[in-house]
Each structure stands twice: as structure tokens, then as C-alpha cells.
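User: Sequence in, structure out. Go.
Assistant: Echoing your sequence, followed by the C-alpha cells.
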Amino acid sequence: IRLTVIRPELTPQEQERFVGPMLWELEPDVCCHERKVKPMAAAVAGQHAWITGLRRDQSGARSQTPLVAWDARYELFKLSPLANWSKDEVWSYIRAHDLPYNVLHDRGYSSIGCTHCTRLPASAEDERSGRWQGRMKTECGLHLPARPFASCQG
């Protein structure tokens, strides 16, 4: 597998110099767009599909995640092969196959995003509750709803 590391246009230091301090606190949607959505759009340009690790049990917003969808924003297929997997199934697979993972999981972090917007989960029942704590924000903007592939037919 060929992996490509993608980065935002600006380093955090450049972003602070040009945009101002604590963009993640003052304008989290803008920060996510600049640091995640724009780099992703550039990375998938010209591709036919992208693969995500979304699971339906992660949150209410993800509960209807299709296995295959048409992502109109990026004009490609969005594949979510883990959509039907539970958190326990993912971790069983990781352990059974001795796969690498982010060590922050060992410290209780169940959903890991950027450094400023990731905290320990506020609720054991909601693994994404550590993201953007104290805000109504629940998604960074990468995973907008996409149409299930079956509904794109005919």
C-alpha cells in the first residue's frame, strides 16, 4: 500500500501569524476546514474513491453510514468497510493481527482528532464526546452525508 501524508497549507505557527491565535477556539469550523477539509479535497482530487474508518456505532450522525456511497462534494465513491463493525470488533481485529494503533487509545482517548480539539471522552457511552467539548460541533466536515450507492442507480 502506498501511503501519502497530507498536510494543511499553513503550519500551526503560520496559521497563528496570518489568521490569529486560537482559531480552533474562536472559529472551529474554519479551523477544521483549513486544516482537514481543504487538504483532503486536494488529496482525493482525481481519485475514484476514498476509504474511511467510519462506524455506525460511533455516533448518531454516523448511524446510517452506508458501506458504499457517492460523495458528491469530492465526486468519487466513499467506502466505509467498517460501517457494520462495532468498537469491540475493531479492537479484537487490531489485537488478533497485531496492528499498530495510536497509543492515546491506551490512555482512554476513544476518538482522536487534532491536539486542540481532542479531550478524554465526557461519556463512556459516546466515544466521540471528547471532541470539541463544550460545543455543539460533532464533526470536522470531512464526513458530510453521502448518498448510498444503491440510491445513485437508475
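User: And one key feature?
Assistant: The mean pLDDT is 86.
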